[in-house]
Design brief:
Layout lengths: L3 E6 L3 H12 L4 E6 L2 H11 L3 E4 L8 H11 L4 E6 L4 H9 L4 E4 L7 H13 L4 E2 L1 H26 L2 H11 L4 H8 L3 H15 L4 H10 L12 H31 L10
Parallel strand pairs: 1-2, 1-3, 3-4, 4-5, 5-6
Helix pairs in contact: 2-3, 7-9, 8-9, 9-10
């Protein structure tokens, strides 16, 4: 049987030696290792391997650019990315540059060897393969994208007036105060709120605010209520109470003066 030639370009000694050891146990593989990207590209040029295992985080060259270069100069080589990076952007960038398989070094220890071999054989057989460890990340990221699209679609259903009304209500304003700010009638404000309730699937202001925050239509910053007006109203109220108490005391004094003081029973 024809041996599968593999070049491993990995700057981390433990990962490179470990990957080489996994393949060396199998009689089907012929393996070369390189610590640096340029060294690895030289080996690829001379040996023309079937599969290249590449870390996209190399100290001397950009791993993503190395993938593109390998595909340009040795198009028949299949590329397996071996990295600890498991975010969606890294995966997308690697595949966009020509990677065929994506192996995550953070795989469970008991499954490292098995998964690594799966990636190598998949690449050799011209199949795509992504480590199951990061499948959940991809699924969650796509779901997150779908959620964002739903939010954008829902947001587009709201008029500017309806959004303004929601924000003012979330800030603690009553319907009459919202009407004064927006220069509309209270009936119009109620109409804006009614439309928003229908679109959010709720039936009152509190749930509307909660749902709008959950969907990203409102933020917690929208709930901020200015303290200055409240302080002024409180101060004014206190002043009014003080004035009333002073007036009551003055009235009592006037009443006391209109009656003679009591000196006891006359004999």
């Amino acid at each position: 049987m024809q041996m599968i030639s593999v070049v491993i370009i990995e700057n981390d000694n433990m990962s490179r030696i470990g990957a080489t050891a996994i393949l060396s146990k199998n009689q089907k593989f012929q393996v070369w290792g390189a610590k640096y990207g340029k060294e690895g590209l030289d080996i690829i040029a001379s040996q023309k391997p079937d599969v290249v295992v590449l870390n996209i985080e190399l100290p001397d060259i950009c791993g993503l650019e190395a993938i593109s270069a390998i595909k340009r100069t040795h198009s028949s080589a299949r590329i397996v990315v071996m990295t600890a990076k498991s975010d969606r952007d890294s995966i997308k960038a690697a595949i966009a540059n020509g990677a065929d398989c994506y192996y995550c070094k953070n795989s469970p220890k008991e499954e490292v060897g098995e998964r690594f071999l799966e990636a190598i054989f998949a690449a050799y057989n011209h199949e795509s393969w992504i480590d199951p460890t990061i499948n959940r990340i991809l699924v969650d990221s796509f779901r997150s994208k779908e959620t964002q699209e739903k939010q954008m679609n829902l947001l587009s259903e709201f008029s500017d007036k309806e959004l303004t009304t929601l924000r003012l209500v979330a800030a603690g304003m009553r319907n009459d105060e919202v009407a004064n700010v927006m220069y509309v009638s209270e009936g119009t404000v109620r109409s804006y709120l009614h439309n928003s309730f229908i679109k959010l699937g709720v039936n009152n202001k509190l749930n509307a605010i909660r749902e709008a925050i959950r969907l990203g239509i409102l933020t917690f910053a929208d709930l901020k209520i200015e303290q200055e007006p409240t302080y002024r109203r409180s101060k004014k109220t206190r002043s009014s109470k003080d004035d009333q108490q002073n007036q009551n005391r003055q009235a009592q004094k006037s009443q006391d003066k209109s009656y003679p003081s009591y000196n006891g029973w006359a004999a």
